[in-house]
Amino acid sequence: MSRPDILVPAPMRDMILGGLEPHFTLHKLYEAADREAMLRDVAERIRGIAISFRPIDKALVDRLPKLEIVANFGVGYDNVDAAYCGTKGIIVTNTPDVLTDEVADTAIALMIMTIRELPAAERWLRQGKWVSQGAFPLTRGTLRGRTLGILGLGRIGKAIAERAEAFGMAVHYHGRNRQDGVGYTYHPSLVSLAEAVDTLMLVAPGGEETRHMVGERVLEALGPQGVVINIGRGSVVNETALAEALRKGTILAAGLDVFENEPHVPQALLDLPNAVLLPHVGSASEATRNAMGQLVVDNLTGWFHHRTVLTPVAETPVS
What we know:
Layout: E1 5-8, H1 14-20, E2 25-28, H2 35-42, E3 46-51, H3 58-62, E4 69-72, H4 82-87, E5 91-93, H5 100-115, H6 118-126, H7 129-133, E6 147-151, H8 155-166, E7 170-174, E8 185-186, H9 190-196, E9 199-202, H10 216-222, E10 227-230, H11 239-248, E11 253-256, H12 267-270, E12 275-277, H13 286-306
Parallel strand pairs: 1-2, 1-3, 3-4, 4-5, 6-7, 6-9, 7-8, 9-10, 10-11, 11-12
């Protein structure tokens, strides 16, 4: 019996490929000298896709008439047109839960780094300024007395909230709806959330619905002691407006792990001393990425062996 054909459009971790190879025929599009020719050759046979941070749009889906499942490496899946896949009966899976704690830890670390200017303090030491110029200047920001507002109180948002409470922070949130059984203060709009807090944690998914939600109006509402931390998707923030707010002192500082056009970061942000910038490392430990990779393998093998998956996304439930 022939093995199902799986398209791998972009490089993935060796442990994912190693887990898939005994069960499937893998077509590694990224290795082809002529990718278009390879895609034409295999399109009629492809039954699954294993993907990481690459778009799977309507046009590609329409080229694969036997496609049954798209297994996405990552909890966010705005790179996949899941709604369209749902109309075609194609299952889309992601990798939630296994990265929740890692991302929440990174979010809290980034918040502390940003508020207490710890990257600048380390540079002060490494550049010899502690010896030549004395102690690092007192930081303008402190975690003491701060109130945290969370945009996106899902699994990761709740894990961040629990950690923030341990630091003595009051927690507020905004989302599509007030959540039952959640004791944090709910705000019906992002602007009202920003007005009520001084630290805004972004854990929202990408997509048109959330694109540039954080712009000039929200930043002004946050105020001059305000801090923005983005651990969700870069497209949620209007980076031009953010850079201007940081430059003018509309807000105090920002810590960003994600950007709208990764890996490209706007020079306006790179030039700012009150912006702490990380290269999308929220879940980037070997242990967590391996657990995410295993979910990709388990979803694909589960579908083709048992017609079931572990983590279907909301747009493509398995009946």
